[in-house]
Amino acid sequence: MKSEGGSGKLEVVGPNRESGFDVEPAKVLSYKDELRLANERLAEDPLVCFIGYGVRIGGRAGGTLKNVPDSQLIEMPVAESLMLSFAIGLALKGRRPVVYFERMDFILNAMDAMVNHLNKIEEISREEFAPTVLIRALVGGTKKPLYTGATHVQDFSEGIRKMVSFPVVQLTRPEQIAPTYAECHQLLSGQVGSRCRESSLLVEYKDLL
Fold first, then answer.
1. Helix crossing, 174-189 with 31-43: angle to 10°?
2. How many Å from the N-terminal Cα to the C-terminal Cα in the chain?
């Protein structure tokens, strides 16, 4: 079952409208540290695995996966469609994959897998199959450490919302991160009340790291 109305936003049930979660007052860390902790919490689920390039070697997703065990990190070639298709296959076998796109610009290479496969498998299989994937896409920085050019800083959130029925959430503040990641994990495993399992796309911003 997809999100009601296909709005591309998580259900709003409390004051934190971006995440859809009531949030108890708590110390908020930096944007990067909140991402790191949120991914470490995801990794506590043994069925979760992280897929992408630069997730096990290099920068480990900008340092946000630095404390995640190597056994849960799957390093891939620079092939975005392959990465997402591979994740869909793992999801069909019961895993809970998290795909990391280092730049949102190149998510365009995975749009067929996202729009016509991940978003439609449940419908075209008459609900026999319902793979779910958590997608992380990073919008490149325009401020630090350097401006990498027009093809590395694009944010396609609004366009993608019009093409998929699962949530597309822009993480623009540190306090959004923990509750949003928590709900996305619940959506991966079908633990959100009467709602069934569902994929999510989280949009993160390098300028905030």
1. 20
2. 34
Q: How far apart are CA 92 and CA 11, in angstroms?
A: 25
Single out the residue of 48, 189, 49 nearest to residue 130, CA to CA. Answer: 189
Longest CA–CA separation in the chain, Å: 48
Pairing of strands 168-170, 134-139: unpaired
Helix, strand, or coil (residue 14): coil
Task: State both tokens at 130.
Answer: 């319902």
Question: What's the rounded Cα separation, in Å, for the pair 203 and 42?
Answer: 17
Looking at residue 206, its amino acid is K
Edge-to-edge strand list for the sheet holding 200-205:
73-75, 48-52, 96-101, 134-139, 200-205, 168-170
Closest CA to 171 of 39, 27, 25: 39
**pLDDT tens digits, one per residue of 66-115:** 999 999 999 999 999 999 999 999 999 999 999 999 999 999 999 999 99
What are the pLDDT digits (tens) for 159-190? 999 999 999 999 999 999 999 999 999 999 87
Distance CA 10, CA 144 (A): 30
Per the confidence metrics, is the pTM higher than 0.90?
no
CA angle 100, 104, 107 (to 5 degrees): 80
- Using the CB atoms, write b or e for 148-165: b if 16+ within 10 Å: eeeebbbebbeebbeebb
